[in-house]
Structure formats: structure tokens, C-alpha cells
Amino acid sequence: MKRVTIIVLDSVGCGAAPDSHLYGDEGSNTLSHVAAAVPEMRLPNLAGLGLGLIEQVSGIERAERPGAWYGRMQEQSAGKDTTTGHWELAGLSLEKPFPVYPDGFPQVIVSRLEAAFGRQILGNIPASGTEIIQRLGDEHVRTGSPIVYTSADSVLQIACHEAVVPLETLYRFCEQSRAIMGGEHAVRRIIARPFAGTSGDYRRTANRHDYALEPFGKTVLDMASSAGYTVAGIGKIHDIYAGRGLTRHVRTTSNQDGIGKTLRWLGESFEGILMVNLVDFDALYGHRNNPEGYAAALMAFDSRLPELIAALSPGELLLITADHGCDPTWPGTDHTREYVPLLAYQPGMDQGRPLGTRSCFCDLAATVADYLSLPERPEGTSFWPQMASDGLA
Question: What is the pLDDT of residues 118-137, one digit of tens each?
């Protein structure tokens, strides 16, 4: 069966990239620092595929006979966020970073937002989403004014209490914001951040919705769907690519939910691409400086990896990688500019070999296009010929 499953372990970087000093991230290493902070962490299945053999990865067992081809990839796009990482994984690299707002949004944007919403906004500062609803939640409930905030990422977030502002209204605010934030202010994502609860105990709900920029060019997802293949996205994939190139998608509530849905879809018969994002590493542990939680999430994924491998049919290709780093031991709570791991597996492999350091995340997209024999080719250098020359299907 010609099907490639791409599992993106969101933020599981594997060592500072050569240009990490430009981002204040020189010395960061998500995987190795988590392993050092939690010495009891064991990843036998990932290690068995060759994770511990990747350059700059320490604290993870080194396999004598790796079960997968292994290496690392360096991002070429300007930035270190989810969108740039995923777009480059799909074959598009960005020369200019998305805009960020360390001092909040300019007055011209605030005025346009308030005119569109028909009410004033609260906040307009960079903030933690969980903290700002505690700080401004009472005023929001009293006035109905939406809480607008940003972060170190290129993002505009709108938080509203579900009992005060209906979800449909919040989503409309986000759609209006997406139209306003164009040109030089084209942030990569507008995010609806609904919350519930009472004063002193506000909490975000699962009804988050992202409004991403559409990719500026064709991705390997577009190319595969145009060629008649099924292209399915699990988790944040639909939001990251603004639905472009996808023929099917499903949202998830957690890593475990994402793995369960991946297993169900692997049980179906279709050819093409199945792309999965597992976000808990980043959202719950990386940004919250929680190496213990990060290690537990890695071990939980590792324990499910044999199920994923067993669900593959002969000829299928499994690619495991990441989109950036988010070292939970690093100062601050931002992503970190790192290499990302690369593991490539097919059922029946005898022994994997090194893929070295790939100069661009686009190499993954080029490999997918090569494997599927797509008539169009994205950026990047395919490593499929290396694998195919070793007798793989």
C-alpha cells in the first residue's frame, strides 16, 4: 500500500541549530535536557528505531541495530514556530518571519478590531493565556469586552467566556480579525480561546479554534490531493494549513486521543498521506517549563509506538519528526531554534542507516513526493532513493 504516515511530535527538538544564537537559543536541546532532568526516562521503542544515534541526542539508549533510518533536519525558514516548521515540512520555506508584537498591537489595529467587534477590547498585551483570563476575566464577564492578547509567537488570541460571548460570536470575531490582520500585519494564526468557570477559577475549554494563513504556495499535501491521493490530517494539521490540500481531517483533544485516531485511520484502506500532530509536548509541558511532564508524555508515546508500527501494511512508510524545539529547561517559555529528529521506517526493514543532517525540513516533503511518485515536486532533496536502494518497497 502506498501510504505515508507523518507523525509530528510537536516541539521535540534535538539540539541547537547553527543559527540558534540569532534567537537567543544557543545551547538549547529539548530531548537531551529533558533526559538529563528526568534520568528515569526510558524510550526503548524510539531508541530501538535509532533516536539515540542522532547527533546531539544524549541520555537515550544507542541501538546497536537501529530499526529505522535516522538523522536530523535543520530549518531554513525564518522563525521557530508551528506554522513555519510545518509549512517547511510540507515543502515551503519562508524568507521573512511572521510579524510579532512584543508591545501589543498598534492603535490602528486596535481601532479596526473594536470597530469590527462593535465593542472595546481588553488586554492588548503579550501574556500567558491561562494567566490573562484570571487577571481580566472578571472585567470581561462584567463588560462583555473580548480579551485580546498575543505571545512571543506571531499570533492574535481572543479569549471570551462561553456564557458571556457565544462561541459563534467569538468565532466571528476571529474571522473578522483574520481579515484585518493582512499585509504587514499578517500574523500566522488568529486563535479563539473560549473559557468557562467563575471568578478565581476560570479555565480554558476544548473549543479552541485556529484561523491560520493559507500557505503561500503549493505544498506536498496539495500535490498529493491533486494527484488523486487521500490526504488526511489529525490534530492541528487542518488549522496549520488552513485546510489546504486535505481531503479529510479530524481534531484531537490530547496526544492519546491523536494516537487512538491515528490507529483507527491506519485500519482503513486508503493510499496517500496521513499527517498527525501531537501537541501536548509543546502546549502542556514545553511552554510550561515542565520537563517531568514532557518526559512522561514522551514515554507515553513510546509505549504506543509498537501499536502504530503493527498497524502498518507492507510497503507503507512511517516518518517521525518535529516542527521546532521547546526546551522546558530553557529560560522563558518560548519555542527554541533547534534541529528536529528524523526517523523513517517501513515494515520488514532489516536495519536502518544514517540519513545525516538534512539541510532543510523540505527534504521530508521531497521524500514523500518521491515515495508517492507525484508528478509535481516540492522544494528539498529526497532521501527516498537512499532507502529504496536498500531494497525497500
Answer: 999 999 999 989 999 999 99
